[in-house]
Amino acid sequence: MRTCRASAAGKFTVVLATIVVLAGCGGGPSPRAWAASVCGALTPWRSEINKLTSSTDEQMTAQTTPAQAKENLVRLFDGAERASEAARRKVEKAGVPEAENGEAISAGFRSSLGMMRDAYGRARDTIDGLGTGEPTAFYDGVRAAVATLNMEYDASALDTSKLNSEELKKAFDEVPECH
Fold it and tell me: Which residues contact 60 (CB under 8 A, 6 or more apart)?
């Protein structure tokens, strides 16, 4: 019996020592590596959102039927929702930077992108639910959905004033992916 206990105690000690050693290693990416990953995620997202915004503006002024406009706007907002989620997943995959307030900063980026994703999804669902039989009512509904989207989008902006990290500020200024 003593052999089994000694063996189990020895295994437990090895596992505990391994956990302590791994916990002390940090393991997050450097500020520069994290900034490069985040900018690498956000650059294509911004391009896609800009393209979708231009297309949305065109749809609002185009001479199309309400049914055509509805189909196009639903597709555009669905694309924006998917692009925002893809960017959020890439930022999540970047991990937590080894920097002051790294966890809070990473969480802030992910949260902001998640709120943007959700705002686009709600706009898509709202427009998808609009009837197209009365053009004036349809376009009034679209304008209201876009106004709500803009308000939610503004509210989802990352408040960087509470997420200070000199290391990350410097990294974002220096890495080529952010320029």
Answer: 69, 139, 142, 143, 146
